[in-house]
Amino acid sequence: MGARRILISDLDGTLLGDDAALAEFAAWHAARRAAFRLVYASGRLYESVVESIRTTPLPKPDAIISGVGSEIHDFQTGAPWPEWNRNLTGWDAAGVRDALTRFSSLELQPEEFLSDYKVSYFARGLSESGLIEIRHSLDEAGFRTNLVYSSNRDLDVLPAHADKGQAARHVAEAWELKPCDVLTSGDSGNDAEMMSYDFKGIVVANAQPELRELSGPNVYHSRLSYAAGVLDGIRYWCGE
């Protein structure tokens, strides 16, 4: 692989949200495609991300992390990464849904937002103790899960080895890039794990409170929003 860096970015509220800034980002990437591989990491499912690429100025990526990190696809071929799917064996989405029916505070999201590896709920104002109770219930039922709560509303129940951060690390390792050469950008809680693993994180100015609270030497908080904030962060970390 010739590219020496990767940008792994969320879409909604990060690259998407300001059309003029997105066009500027697309022009920036077109001039640097040989140096930067591009990966989108979205809470949406793969087909929905592809539709956004088709209908907006989003540049074509090299790969897509979708379903809050539960899926990875090669964009050019559309094929899932089989080695990633092997990490998710033994997952039982129907069983997880059954185990959580007793929680009246959880509203199952429409089927179009669910997949074999992602069970998602609306859970507005869920407290930390509420999350602990849900996790305990799943543990007692024998499910090894990862709970991702974002925007004070969305609860995603994933296989234990799936989230955006673990998927991003898998992509970086598959392409043999050092963590310091991986840039990640996002705006909500389901992007928080992408700011780990010594990656260079970019938090856009319009981010949700749970992401604005992140701090550390590898997290840059831009004063600009949406794609403008992503470009600002790239220039901060890379000078490009």
Verbal overview:
By secondary structure, the chain is of the alpha/beta class. The protein has helices spanning 19-32, 46-55, 82-85, 93-99, 128-140, 164-174, 209-212, 226-238; strands at 5-9, 36-41, 63-66, 71-74, 107-108, 119-122, 145-150, 154-159, 182-186, 200-203, 219-221. It folds into two domains: 5-86 and 162-238, HAD superfamily/HAD-like (Rossmann fold, 3-Layer(aba) Sandwich); 88-159, Hypothetical Protein Ta0175, Chain: A, domain 2 (Alpha-Beta Complex). It is built from eight helices and eleven strands. Helix 1 (19-32) packs parallel to helix 8 (226-238). The two termini are 20 Å apart. The model has no long low-confidence stretch (mean pLDDT 93).
Strand and helix layout:
Elements: E1 5-9, H1 19-32, E2 36-41, H2 46-55, E3 63-66, E4 71-74, H3 82-85, H4 93-99, E5 107-108, E6 119-122, H5 128-140, E7 145-150, E8 154-159, H6 164-174, E9 182-186, E10 200-203, H7 209-212, E11 219-221, H8 226-238
Parallel strand pairs: 1-2, 1-9, 2-3, 9-10, 10-11
Antiparallel strand pairs: 3-4, 5-6, 6-8, 7-8
Helix pairs in contact: 1-8
Shape: globular
Question: Largest sheet, order of strands side by side?
Answer: 4-3-2-1-9-10-11
Instruction: Give the tally of β-strands.
Output: 11
- Termini separation: 20 Å
Unreliable sequence segments: none
Helix/strand-derived category reads alpha/beta
Q: Helix segment count? A: 8
Q: How large is the radius of gyration? A: 17 Å
Number of domains: 2
Query: What is the element string, with H for helices and E for strands?
Result: EHEHEEHHEEHEEHEEHEH
